[in-house]
C-alpha cells in the first residue's frame, strides 16, 4: 500500500485496514479489489465460503464483502460460521445481494450481517457503506478498549479491596480486644456491654473497670465520624480508660502506693478534653457518659458530655432520663463539665446507649428518639437480664428500623444492674 493511499485510508476509514472479498466470480472480485486497493486497503480474496473461513481463522479481517449466492457454502452460511469464530476484535460484514434477494434481508441480519449492498455495485455507495462501517467499528473498538481498561482497573481495585478488607478484619479483631468481657459481675451487681459496628469497624466504645471491691466505673463513648479514623480514636481512648493497666487509666489515681482510686467523673472528662485539644493533629471529638458507682450504697456519679441521656429503670417500674446534655469532648477548650448524681436501689438498672439507638431511622422516616427507645425497653422480657436483655433490645431495634436503609451508625450500650451490697 502506497504512503498516500494508506494516509487516505486512515483518514477516511479509521478502524478498517484489511478487507476480505468473497465471490465465486473472478470478475466481480477484480472490480471490488481494484476500488478497495485504490482507496488504500489491504485486500485478500477467496472464491468460496470454505476458503474464506480458513483465511479468517488465521488472520481475521476488519471488513468482509461476501456474495450471498455461491456454490457450496453460501454467503449466509459463511456469515454464520464467521460469527462463531473467536476473535479479539469485531469485524464488519456486508452481504452482496441481487434485487431478487432483498426480501431476505431479515434472514441475513439474523445470521450476523451488518449491512447489505445490491449488485451491481456503485463505487460511491460502496465507499459510503464502508465509511459507515468504519465509524461503527471505531466506536466499538474504542468501547472495547475502555472496557478492557475498566476490567484491568477493577482487577487492580479488587486486589486493593481484598487487602483493605483483610486489614479491616484484623482491625476489627483488635477493636474487639478493647472489650474483652461483655459481661462481668461485681459482687451481686452486673455490667453487660453491647457493641455493634455498622461496618467492619466502628467509632463506638464501651467498657468497665474496677480498681477494688465496691468501686466500679463504666462508660459509653461515640467518636465523631465513621470508619478507620474513628476506630483509631477508639483504640487510643481504650488505652486512656484501660481496664488492665491502671497506671495508664486517666480515670484512676494511685494513692499511698497501695491502691487505685476512681477520680470524679467531671475531672476525667476535663482531662480527656484537655488531651484532645492539645493534640493539633486530631480533628475528631467524641461524646461520652462516664459513671462511677459505690456498690455499698448505690451512689452513682456521672458526667454527660454530649451523649444521649442515660436511662434509669427503677425497680418499681418507673423510668427517668438523667443529665442535661453537656459539651462533647475535644470540641472546645476549657470546658467545665457538671457532675450528675443519683442513688440506685437494689433492683434498679441503668442503661447507657449511643445515638445509634435513639437516631435509628424508622420506616416512616422518623427517628426512634429516647421515648421510642423507652418503649422498646418496656417491651423486653422483664425476667431477662445481662447480655440477654441487650440482645433482646437490639433485636427489637432491628424490627422497628427501616429495612432498606440498615444501620446508619454504630450501636452500643452499657447495662448496669444494681443488686445492693
UniProtKB/TrEMBL annotation:
CDD domains: REC. Keywords: Hydrolase, Phosphoprotein. The keyword Hydrolase applies. InterPro entries: Bact_Sigma-Reg (IPR052016), CheY-like_superfamily (IPR011006), PPM-type-like_dom_sf (IPR036457), PPM-type_phosphatase-like_dom (IPR001932), Sig_transdc_resp-reg_receiver (IPR001789). Residues 18-134 form the Response regulatory domain. It comes from the Bacteria. The modification 4-aspartylphosphate is found at residue 67. The keyword Membrane does not apply. This is Fused response regulator/phosphatase.
Amino acid at each position: 500500500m502506497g504512503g498516500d493511499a494508506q494516509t487516505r485510508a486512515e483518514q477516511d476509514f479509521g478502524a478498517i485496514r484489511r478487507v476480505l472479498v468473497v465471490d465465486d466470480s473472478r470478475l466481480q472480485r477484480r472490480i471490488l479489489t481494484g476500488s478497495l486497493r485504490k482507496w488504500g486497503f489491504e485486500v485478500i480474496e477467496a472464491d468460496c465460503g470454505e476458503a474464506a473461513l480458513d483465511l479468517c481463522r488465521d488472520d481475521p479481517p476488519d471488513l468482509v464483502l461476501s456474495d450471498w449466492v455461491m456454490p457450496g457454502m453460501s454467503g449466509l452460511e459463511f456469515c454464520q460460521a464467521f460469527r462463531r469464530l473467536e476473535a479479539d476484535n469485531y469485524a464488519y460484514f456486508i452481504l452482496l445481494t441481487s434485487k431478487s434477494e432483498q426480501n431476505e434481508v431479515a434472514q441475513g441480519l439474523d445470521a450476523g450481517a451488518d449491512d447489505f449492498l445490491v449488485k451491481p455495485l456503485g463505487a460511491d455507495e460502496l465507499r459510503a457503506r464502508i465509511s459507515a462501517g468504519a465509524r461503527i467499528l471505531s466506536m466499538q473498538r474504542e468501547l472495547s478498549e475502555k472496557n478492557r481498561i475498566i476490567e484491568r482497573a477493577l482487577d487492580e481495585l479488587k486486589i486493593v479491596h481484598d487487602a483493605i478488607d483483610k486489614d479491616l478484619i484484623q482491625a476489627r479483631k483488635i477493636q474487639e480486644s478493647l472489650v474483652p468481657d461483655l459481661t462481668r459481675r461485681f459482687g451481686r451487681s452486673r455490667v453487660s456491654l453491647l457493641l455493634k459496628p455498622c461496618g467492619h469497624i466502628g467509632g463506638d466504645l464501651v467498657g468497665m473497670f474496677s480498681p477494688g471491691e465496691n468501686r466500679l466505673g463504666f462508660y459509653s463513648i461515640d467518636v465523631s465520624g465513621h470508619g478507620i479514623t474513628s476506630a483509631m480514636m477508639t483504640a487510643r481512648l481504650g488505652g486512656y480508660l484501660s481496664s488492665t493497666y491502671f497506671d495508664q487509666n486517666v480515670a484512676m489515681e494511685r494513692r499511698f502506693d497501695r491502691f487505685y482510686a476512681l477520680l470524679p467523673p467531671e475531672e476525667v472528662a476535663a482531662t480527656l478534653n484537655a488531651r484532645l485539644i492539645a493534640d493539633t493533629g486530631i480533628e475528631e471529638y467524641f461524646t461520652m457518659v462516664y459513671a462511677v458507682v459505690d456498690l455499698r450504697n448505690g451512689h452513682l456519679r456521672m458526667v454527660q458530655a454530649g451523649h444521649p441521656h442515660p436511662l434509669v429503670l427503677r425497680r418499681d417500674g418507673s423510668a427517668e432520663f438523667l443529665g442535661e446534655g453537656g459539651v462533647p469532648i475535644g470540641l472546645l477548650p476549657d470546658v467545665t463539665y457538671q457532675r450528675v448524681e443519683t442513688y440506685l436501689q437494689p433492683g434498679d438498672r441503668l442503661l447507657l446507649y449511643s445515638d445509634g439507638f435513639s437516631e435509628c431511622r424508622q420506616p416512616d422516616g422518623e427517628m426512634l428518639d429516647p421515648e421510642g427507645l423507652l418503649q422498646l425497653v418496656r417491651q423486653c422480657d422483664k425476667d431477662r437480664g445481662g447480655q440477654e436483655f441487650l440482645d433482646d433490645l437490639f433485636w427489637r431495634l432491628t424490627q422497628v428500623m427501616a429495612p432498606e436503609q440498615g444501620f446508619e451508625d454504630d450501636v452500643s450500650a452499657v447495662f448496669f444492674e444494681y443488686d445492693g451490697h
